[in-house]
Design a protein that fits this description.
By secondary structure, the chain is of the alpha/beta class. It has helices at residues 15-27, 38-47, 66-74, 93-101, 115-127, and strands at 7-11, 31-35, 54-57, 84-88, 106-109. The chain has a single domain (3-127), classed as Rossmann fold. The chain has a five-stranded parallel sheet, with helices on both faces.
């Protein structure tokens, strides 16, 4: 898979940030599926003919947290192997360890990263 055909599901409930991430990813040639809630992301995955190559997940959503979202992903064998990158406002060692145990490939603090570097990290997560 070339980077230009990568499909990214972005699960972020902050509308302005969701649109900024979408625009940046599209500028980098990615196909973007925007989900303003965990529930919407699960609905999209349920109805999807083609699953995303990677999920960009905000830990704190209005309707669920990252652990709850990952628990949903693990209930479906088709979704269980989609790589997930968490981008959050907070990261305790316990939270990061729990998310890694649930299969999250990368956990990043928003405040410590620029959008450009996050896109590169996302590509690295997909490549494994």
């Amino acid at each position: 898979m070339s980077d230009s055909t990568m499909t990214v599901m972005v699960v972020e409930d902050e509308e302005m940030l969701l649109r900024a991430i979408e625009k940046k990813l599209q500028m980098d040639g990615k196909t973007v599926i925007c989900c303003p809630s965990g529930k919407k992301a699960i609905e999209v995955l349920t109805e999807a003919e083609k699953l995303p190559d990677v999920i960009w997940l905000d830990y704190y959503l209005k309707d669920m947290n990252g652990l709850e979202f990952m628990s949903y992903l693990k209930t479906n064998d088709k979704w269980a192997n989609i790589p997930v990158m968490v981008v959050s406002n907070s990261a305790t060692p316990e939270k990061v360890a729990n998310m890694r145990a649930m299969g999250v490939k990368k956990y990043i603090l928003k405040a410590e990263s620029r959008l450009d570097s996050l896109v590169k990290t996302l590509e690295d997560v997909v490549k494994g």
